[in-house]
Each structure stands twice: as structure tokens, then as C-alpha cells.
Amino acid sequence: MPRRLCCGDSTTEVYPQPREHGFSTRASSGVYSSPMSAGKAAEKHESPDQPAPDDTRGWVARVFTWIEDVVYIGLSVMLAASALALLGHTANSFVRELLQGSLPVAIVALLDRLLLVLMIVELLYTVQVSFREHALVPEPFLIVGLVAATRRILVLTAEFPELQDKGEQAVRIAMTELGVLTLMILALVASLRLLRRRDRDAVAKKD
Asked: Of 12, 42, 112, 120, which sits 20 to 30 A from 131 (CA to CA)?
């Protein structure tokens, strides 16, 4: 039950609260004040001076995003320079072999360099997508693996006459490697088909 305290012309009602909060008073005018509400008001008053955790996380995330962009730009520049340099060297070798009439002999080596340029271009595309969307796309990595496996098969095929002179053990190892590379190519092609089918299904669902 509230207690009425009379002081002069005003009357104040005192309500009992738990011991840890003491008593709260309410004047006859109808205004009520409690220690808990006063503490919340003090916290609201002090909160602008303290940085919010979400703001700190956002600032740290922006810093790491900026560092990631700088790394992507550096990788793009080096990959582009490497691809251009290798392409120029391959073109120079192609013209030289063509003028000397030894192009059929050097065609496998030239094709190997062109496939290496293609691998670098695919890596450059992957970096470009990662820089633009800040997400890794699996399809370019599968294409790079497919090109690398094809490149290794071409090298082994070109070296096969020399392997026959080295003995039966070298030929057996080369044949095993060719079988593994063939299985790898089949797995990569199947993965690419599944990814593209998934993308088509996702587009169809959106439409």
C-alpha cells in the first residue's frame, strides 16, 4: 500500500520497492520516476560518446576490403604483364620457326606456350571477378585445371618417342600419367557441365 507524505500544500505518495531499489516517489501531479528508468536515461545520454560495436566492425571490414582490392590490382597487373610478355615471345618464336621452315617440329612447344598464356588469362579473369564481386567463382579454376591437364598431355605425347628409348619403366609411368590426366579431364568437364546446368536452373527460377 502506498504511504502518503504531507509537506506543506503538496502530497507525495511513496510506493515500496525491493530493497535493492529503495523507494520511488510519485507526486500528486502524476509524474513517476524510478531508479531503473533514471539509469536507462543515463545510458542513453552516455552512448553517443562511446563507439558502437557495429561501427567498429564495419570500419575493420572496410579496411580489409581496401587491402583485398589493392592485392587484386597488383595480381592483375602482374598476370597481365606476364601474359603479354609470354604472348610476345611465342609470337616471335612462331615467326622465326616459320621463316626457318622448322614450324612442324616446334609446333608442340608453341602450342604449350599458348596454353600457358590461356591459363594466365583465365587466372586474370578469376581475379577480375573476385575484384568486382568480392566472391570466388569456381568455373575459372576448373577451366585452368582443364587447360593444365591438356597441356601436360601434349607434353607427354611429344616426349613419347624419347621415353621409349629410356626403357619400359619410363613408358609405363607415362602411360599411367596419361590415364590419370584423362580421368581428371573427364571429371573437370563433368563439373563444368553441372555448374552451368545449375546456373541455368537458377536463371530459370528467377524468370
From this structure: 112
Q: Write the pLDDT tens digit of every residue in 20-32.
A: 444 444 444 444 4
3-class DSSP assignment, residue 202: helix
Q: Are 110 and 97 in contact (CB under 8 A)?
A: yes
Q: Are residues 108 and 148 in the same domain?
A: no
Which residue has cell 527460377? 205
pLDDT in tens, 135-194: 777 888 888 889 889 888 888 888 877 777 778 888 888 899 999 999 999 999 999 889
User: Residue 59 above 50 pLDDT?
Assistant: yes
Q: What is the pTM of this model?
A: 0.59
C-alpha cell at 155: 607434353
- Domain end position, chosen among 136, 152, 172: 136
What is the pairing mode between strands 10-16 and 3-7?
Answer: antiparallel
Q: From CA 98, how far away is CA 85, in angstroms rounded?
A: 20
What's the total number of domains in the chain? 3
Cβ–Cβ < 8 Å for 184, 145: yes
Domain range for 27: 1-36
What letter does residue 32 receive in the DSSP assignment? B
CB 79 within 8 A of CB 120: yes
Q: How long a stretch of residues is the chain?
A: 207
pLDDT classification of 86: cutoffs 50, 70, 90: very high
What single DSSP character describes residue 10? E
Q: What is the identity of the amino acid at 50?
A: Q
